[in-house]
Amino acid sequence: MYEASFTINLAINNPPEDILASSEDCITNVARYAAEVALKVYFDDVRTLIHTNVASQLTPLLTDKDRGIRTRAHDRLMALSRWEDEDLPLSSNASIVVNLLHGLVDPETQAYEMPYAKVGSKPLSFFADAIVQQCTSTKRLRKPPFIRGGNFLAVARIAVEEILSLTGLSNMKSADANNFVKDALIAACCSLKINHILWIRDHDGRHGRPTITICHDVWLNLSATDKPPSMVVPSFLSRQQSASSAAFRASEKIQTSDPRGDWSAISVRLVKFHTVLHKMSLPTKWNIRHLGFKSLPQEVIDSYTEVRDNFVCTNPLEQLSVMYAIIACGLLPNIYAPSKIKHTDNRFMA
Questions:
Q1: Poorest-confidence range of 65-69, 142-146, 293-297?
Q2: CA distance 317 to 321
Q3: Residue 346, by phi and psi: left (phi above 0), alpha (psi -120 to 50) or beta?
Q4: To the nearest whole number, what is the mean pLDDT of the chain?
Q5: What value does the mean pLDDT take over residues 38-59?
Q6: DSSP states along 298-320
Q7: Crossing angle of helices 235-257 and 26-58, rounded to 10°
Q8: What's the CA gap between 149 and 46, in Å, rounded?
């Protein structure tokens, strides 16, 4: 449990820079990242189960007297090794599945198909529901999709707890919290391209309870279509987004009021142009680096530099010139449209 907690908390406390890039989506991004970290532990559990079972079958064949048998066993182990090295081992990408099938299937049978369970395809929400249900259950019985002896269950429980803590809600009884955790898991599955997972053997009408032990050679297809996601934003996200928007508007107001602050002509509507007349510098887009030096004549570059270096912010005429320049840029490329436009009926319109 300590290792599981350490794994998730280390990831959440040290996320990649792009995870925190958007203040409005920060909570959602961190939740999805925590789910991705947990699911990568599931990848390890899948690799271990498959490798253990396939290697136990093929290792004795590596010393067989028949050269053909030794060669086929070696080829299957090499293919399995290539599959294990994949970053997204549960993807349906052909270059990944081919190595998985080559490692799992005995070439004598030529049964090169994914051995899917008879329950048919399920949506990703089925996988997410199973994870959340097991992680929030007080029972210690390990059920699918968790692999016996694997580490995913311990890590997933910590991940679900940490994702839940991001919402500020106390438990999964809240519909908002429940859906938020499931949505994070589904988004992580999409990011990691999880198309199938290991599953249990079909019961086939046998007496007794169905097995709950995951095996290495039965898969559950997750390609079924999910229901359209709800467009209702959870209340805790609405509060967070409202706070972020208010802070962003306040920061824009502070920057706009500062005469020396940067400003963008693109974000200022012409009817609001009077709000930036106090600025002491040209807009940020007025940067000589935007010019194509190799394609423009020197006189254009000189003119551009002259305006930049000698702009007088308090001169009304120069302020008007900037305004006209912004209007002209907004009209491009239509401002240079030909005077005669050819129509499909071969007539010309002036």
A1: 293-297
A2: 6
A3: left
A4: 81
A5: 96
A6: HHHHHHHHHHHHH--TT-HHHHH
A7: 130
A8: 11
Q: What is the pTM of this model?
A: 0.67
- Give the largest CA-CA distance in the chain: 95
What pLDDT is attached to residue 58?
Answer: 96
> What residue type is assigned to position 123 of the chain?
P
Lowest-pLDDT range of 102-116, 139-153, 162-176, 233-247: 233-247
Delimit the domains of the chain by residue range.
2-221, 258-350
**Is 8 within 8 Å of 37 (Cβ atoms)?**
yes
- If you count them, how many residues does the chain have? 350
Q: At what angle do helices 26-58 and 175-191 cross, to 10 degrees?
A: 50
Give the mean pLDDT of 257-277: 74
Partner residues linked to 349 by β-bridges: 341
Residue-wise pLDDT for 278-293, tens only, equals 777 777 767 666 555 5
Tell me, rounded to whole angstroms, the distance of Cα 212 from its chain centroid: 31
Cβ proximity of 277 and 259 under 8 Å: no
What is the distance between the alpha carbons of residues 313 and 277, in angstroms, rounded to a whole number? 8
Residue 90 one-letter amino acid: L
- Residue 148 DSSP label: T
Other Cβ atoms within 10 Å of 174 Cβ, number: 16
333: cis peptide before it, omega within 30°? yes
Structure tokens at 200: 């249990």
- Asked whether 32 and 26 are in contact (CB, 8 A), the reply is no
Per residue in 142-151, pLDDT (tens digit) is 999 999 999 9
| Cβ atoms 182, 128 nearer than 8 A | yes
